[in-house]
Amino acid sequence: MTTGSPDYRDIGLEFPPGFLFGSATAAYQIEGAAHEDGRGPSIWDTFSHTPGRVVGGDTGDRADDHYHRLESDLNLMERLGLEAYRFSVSWSRIQPDGKGAVNSRGLAFYSRLVDGLRKRGIRPIATLYHWDLPQALEDAGGWTSRDTAQRFGDYAAIMGEALGDRVGTWTTLNEPWCSAYLGYGSGAHAPGIASGRAALTAVHHLNLAHGIGTQALRSVLPADAECSVTLNFHVLRPGDDQAEDAMRRIDALANRSFTGPMLTGAYPADLLADTASVTDWSFVQPGDLDIVNQPIDFLGVNYYSTAMVREWNGRGPRQRADGHKGTAGSPWPGSDFVEFVEQPGPYTDMGWNIAPEGFEELLVSLSEQFPDLPLMVTENGAAFVDEVRDGVVDDADRIDYLQRHLTAVHRALSRGVDIRGYQVWSLLDNFEWAYGFSKRFGIVHVDYDTLERTIKNSGHWYSELVRSRRIPAGPRNER
């Protein structure tokens, strides 16, 4: 039974020893140095340089210039007291064409990053793929090509061999839902393709890449190394009293298209039936699901908001309030009659509703579905409009969001859910994909003209949480 404040603004809740507090970033969003030291182009270089694809015409060419500001950013992490740092590796910085020779200068950058983290007592968590596929592989079919999964295995082995003596925690893919359905279904993300069949083909090849990549990592890493995958889960709400089938259908596409093969070794039968008019799934070859279904040490969980669905009655315009940037294409193949309904606020600057109870519900549900699989919160955070005034960023809304969602994590822990840590998204304001620099998620403010970093009040609040291991009071506590 859940106890405490009904609005999830509990204070003083203590987290257990060993619970890992950190922060997360992604390579293309912060690194910059897009054309330096042998890095090849990725699909996000191409996409962001295509007119009309990204708000403001922004690109990640410079981003936060983390590549050149590594030491000062590491010092910033140390100042915040982070216990862990989840970063992603730019595949095209390691293999400019996604295959073949290794770029030693790219490897050297990540080696310096890992050494710098360890020197400061911060645990490195390496993510191999956070959406930035080498453009040369996309030119050969990208995630619609089975060969890309094989190339990913080669890349995973390279990274495991290079850093496995110093990095003990690895994640194969971050949010393959976005890579497949936004990249190849709606076209809102790179490479900008709008095809239901391409999206489902990409789903399988990303699943296959996870399996091949995990096998490759296991073959080169020490026996005590941890392997994982990170999924962004859609927590669904009914838009009316007849929404059951719509919820089931979206759950299959959003969640079970990955947890099914990865964690149980099979695609859900209802998913295959729902999408039969889109594809016959002939790209799934004998033995694939045995490869995909690899043992992992924990499941990475990303959560931001909930979604509300119902069947569209065909009258009037269909609502598409699914929380993702609108395009002509759809990220929901085979579900054209499902309507995403706008939910009650409050909202973040992304237009996403704030629902900490959905977070608790998700963590408990995953524990019930996969009782022997530990969880780690690998992303959770919020975008708000932030300003530096007299050297201070008073982001009370973000503190409130974090307090409420960390309360949800603690409540799930108290209900017996095995959660190993929490990585706040994000360390720095950064390039927010198709939204460019128009959205700020960081607990550290970045001035995009000067690149000056300013720790926001949320960063100081989070630092106090890490230090004390207790949830501090937030700006809206009344007690």
UniProtKB/TrEMBL annotation:
Residues 315-334 are annotated as: Disordered. The active site is at residues 175, 379. One of its GO terms (biological process) is cellulose catabolic process. GO terms for cellular component: cytosol. Substrate binds at residues 29, 130, 174, 304, 425, 432-433. It is an enzyme of class 3 (hydrolase). Its EC number is 3.2.1.21. One of its GO terms (molecular function) is beta-glucosidase activity. Coiled coil: none annotated. The keyword Zinc does not apply. Keywords: Carbohydrate metabolism, Cellulose degradation, Glycosidase, Hydrolase, Polysaccharide degradation. It catalyses: Hydrolysis of terminal, non-reducing beta-D-glucosyl residues with release of beta-D-glucose. Belongs to the glycosyl hydrolase 1 family. PANTHER family: GLYCOSYL HYDROLASE (PTHR10353), LP05116P (PTHR10353:SF36). This is Beta-glucosidase. It comes from Homoserinimonas hongtaonis.
